[in-house]
Amino acid sequence: RTLGELALRIAHARALYRPLGEGGPPAIAQLLEREGALGATARIRVTSADPTDERASCLRAWGDAYRAQGGRIDLTDPERTFRVVSGTGGGSTYVLLEQLRVVDRKALHARRPGSQAFRQPVTLSSRLARTLVNLAEAPVGGTLLDPFCGTGAIPREAGLLGHPVFVSDRSAKMLRGTLRNLAVAGITPELAGVADVSELPGLLGDRPRVSALVTDPPYGRASSTGGEGWRDLLSRLYTLVPAIVGAEGTCVMLLPLPDPDLPLPTGWRGRSLGLAERVHASLSRYVYRLEGPHHLPAPGRANVSAGLPGRAL
């Protein structure tokens, strides 16, 4: 179950692997011989289109090593799959990996904007929405709020990961569209309402503060701000963040510049996580994150920008 949940969350990856060891070709052969002693069927893969790559010439020897202690090679339906990749030392140093789970990337692609029941000319992709949710680092079961829900891409990805979701928008039309798209995905938000930013505390009422606020706010270009400058809109949101999001939580936003350069809520930190996408010549979108006073980054996430599309996650 844990591997399945992890494979669902890191939807940009192709597979989950565990490292078995590192070294030159003889060391890899020894590792495979040890694994072959367990008797399972297996296939061994190398990733290289270069016929002069040393791994290609070693592949037969590594297969022989796996068979030496009773292992069997099966290229069609193996019980185990190994992959040999270049090691950190360069040269003839390699890492032997065992594939644990294949990630279903087709499911993410199937949720592309054009496939939604409710669509708008500019709709956030499921790929980028998933990235924003992941970068929020909300705990398992933590509630996520999207106060500019639009077509619902962010709450849909959060809901598919098992997070309870709160959704709101100043436009009744957009809220209805979000609810329609969420229903198609089998997701029922715990809270939904038409609300301006200033009305969010009243919408939440006496509910506990959310674990994360994740959103793609309007900039007044393809999405309306009601005549208000997007910086002013964001500034109003900032003042309410401590009342909406827990001190251990985060706010992850997609903005038209790396840093909005606005006064931060007391005790909160702001971090630009890098370029998310170039929309056209005059618009690029960046990920910006606010971190609560008690927020602790997830272990092993020193470079959170590595989660952006087009990079490894």
Automatic annotation (TrEMBL):
Pfam families, alphabetized: UPF0020
Lineage start: unclassified sequences, metagenomes, ecological metagenomes
GO biological process, one term: tRNA methylation
Keyword annotations of the record: Methyltransferase, Transferase
Record's protein name: RNA methylase
UniProt xrefs under InterPro entries: DNA_methylase_N6_adenine_CS, RlmKL-like_Mtase, SAM-dependent_MTases_sf
GO molecular function, one term: nucleic acid binding
Annotated Ribosomal RNA large subunit methyltransferase K/L-like methyltransferase domain residues: 115-252
Membrane spanning stretches: none
